[in-house]
Amino acid sequence: MAVVAPARDELRLFLAGHPAPLLLDDVPVQLPDELVGPALGVVPGVVWGSRPVPLPDGWRLLLFTDGLVEGLDSSGGSNRRLGVEGLVRLAGQSTVFHDSAALVEDVLQGARRLHGGELADDVAVLVVERVGRTQEQP
Q1: Between helices 83-93 and 100-115, what is the axis angle to 10°?
Q2: Contacts of 56 (CB under 8 A, 6+ apart)
Q3: Maximum distance among all Cα pairs of the chain, rounded to whole angstroms
Q4: 121 and 67 in contact (C-beta within 8 Å)?
Q5: pLDDT band at residue 68 using 50, 70 and 90 as cut-offs
């Protein structure tokens, strides 16, 4: 879960068993993920930690479920998991990197291609972005 501050300049990141989102700046980078907690419903009564993460002007975030990165990467003859590193590579090499809607589809298609078909786990991918700054009222 990412909770964006009212000023839109930072977010609080809560990770319940999933990898941290990617910040889509000049190049995609994964947000800090050192506070990953257990998946929802696995441990009763758990409280997930969070941390503030500063955001640059004009930020975009790629949020995704683990089903996307748990698919296989069959490139180069290996059958290892795509992983977050592979997702960063897919997003960074996308010819539609700056078009958020097209990037979602491109990343999904790339993951399916590398996996050799439909991914085994459920997959959700979403890009959230701050397109422009609003004028502050006096």
Answers
A1: 130
A2: 23, 25
A3: 60
A4: yes
A5: very high
Give me the long-range contacts of 110-117 (CB less than 8 A, separation at least 24): 111/68, 111/69, 111/71, 111/82, 111/87, 112/71, 114/71, 114/72, 114/73, 114/74, 114/75, 114/82, 114/86, 114/90, 115/71, 115/72, 115/73, 115/74, 115/82, 116/72, 116/74
pLDDT tens digits, 45-57: 888 888 899 999 9
Span 73-126, pLDDT tens digits: 988 777 899 999 999 999 999 999 999 999 999 999 999 999 999 999 999 999
